[in-house]
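Quick log. Single chain, no ligands specified.
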Amino acid sequence: MLPIVAIGHPTLKKKAAQIGPDYPDLKDLIDKMFETMYESKGVGLAAPQVNKSIRLFIVDARPYADDFPEAKEFVKIFINPYILNESGEEWMFNEGCLSVPGINEDVSRFSDVEIEYMDENFQSYKETYKGIIGRIIQHEYDHLEGTLFVDRLSPLKKALIRGKLNKISKGEVDITYRMIFPNKK
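-> predicted structure:
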């Protein structure tokens, strides 16, 4: 399992770089990212979260299948993705993040997302996703742009959780998976 970087780590604030088919050990990295995501009980994981500033994220939405039928068989790899359009109604949903353990907050996002990306074989796609799938994709895509879900909170809400965020960056959090804490003494 790869260690997940915690909030405050500089890799989480960088805009990630595109990669090509010659990226070293890409298949191994993707396999380890899936293993890490499953071990840490996530539904998505972006490469910056495992300290790789590259445009890659994975999604397995199946844990949401009971409430959102579109998630039933949704497992996908996104390489070099670019969101072309966000549309539809904005809706609030309680989000969390493996890099910000123990904090969940309501975040507003658009219901639909149109995205261009490549799969693990560097085959190109342009697709539109809706509902919970669109939301997970937008959350993971944010990681490639150097944005965390807490960056989308109101200034007041962010101020209210600032102490908790600082504790997480110092490693003062109860977790069941490996992490790298940027401000741990």
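The mean pLDDT is 97.
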